[in-house]
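Chain X:
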Amino acid sequence: MTTVAFIHSLPRWHHHRSHLSSRRKSNKHTARENLICFSAAAAATDVNSPSSSLEAKALKADLLSVVAGLDRGIFASDDDVEAADLASKRLEDAGDKIDLPRDLDKLQGKWRLVYSSAFASGNLGGSRPGPRAARFPLTLGPVYQRIDVLSREFDNIVEFRAPTPWPLPPLETRATLAHTFELPGGASVKIIFDKTSIKGLGVLSELPPLDLPRLPDFLRSSSSGLFTVSYLDDDFRITRGDRGELRVFVKL
């Protein structure tokens, strides 16, 4: 999905193998969050709607179980990537045909990324050539998309943490990649980059936000793009990007 799919081009961050054990602990926490987030959303869905059928619920739970423990794909092996793709296709095949002028309201809201095949590619460009993730020294935090269908705004929000010497606290920032979006037709979404805003968190929270009219070099390859919404209901979304990326989101 790359309608400005920065999120569709986020990397694989598992080059620090010496920290694998501690990272896996956080992965389990992330997986639990994913399952809790889905369960709450599914419980709020109208049981009489097609999107809340028992089949769809079972397929969504199956997909989440496949990606659980992969930390959004960061630790995904080739077999994991294939399993996630197959589980996604089963859910896509069970869903209704998507027409975004008709189904546009379902995109509204804040969505959290629970899986991206781009993380397993090892670079920021997904299946296209891009800067290697291993060259980027930050730890990836939560990744969100915030979509406003009325104003046609599409923001990719990513939190980062930079390590510091003990006993200093880590430096945390939130990057918001602001886009507008267009609907070329069918289930496609085109995103157009506007600007990047950087806001400090934690010990940096008192600093004013910084707006960058030009995307940083390491993110520039993912500034704008086109993706297809391949599954969509009130709480769950699957997208496939123009770089071959699969991404799975749950609504907050």
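Chain Y:
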Amino acid sequence: MEVSMELFLRFWIAIFPIMATTNTYAIYFGDASSFLENSYTGRPGEMTALAARLFGVWTTLASVVRIACSLYLHNKVLYYVAMFTYLIHISHFTSEMLIFKTWNVSMGFKIPVAVSTMTLVWMFIAQWYIEFEEVVVRSKVN
């Protein structure tokens, strides 16, 4: 993969998790009720402060995986785990919108799904051009 395109992919994968940490900060240290009111407006009674904090934990975990992927882009296992975090993100919001009817689509909340979808597609295509490190599996010999 061309160096400039690889650097841009690294930046792209890293920038959104960094931005997502602001949501996590707001959930834990700010007013979680604003997150609840703005995110899952389809059935507001089903969203609790506990659910908001769990969402914050998920966001933190996904952010750590994605930032690690951007730092170690040639690690094939980490690359695929990061791809799955985007797939889980898309699946979550799609199911909340179509199945559970808790997530109303507004412009502010279309953006995260669009970014996750674009990133997942880009990572899927880029995997054919990235030179991954060879995975060495070591077994214990008695």
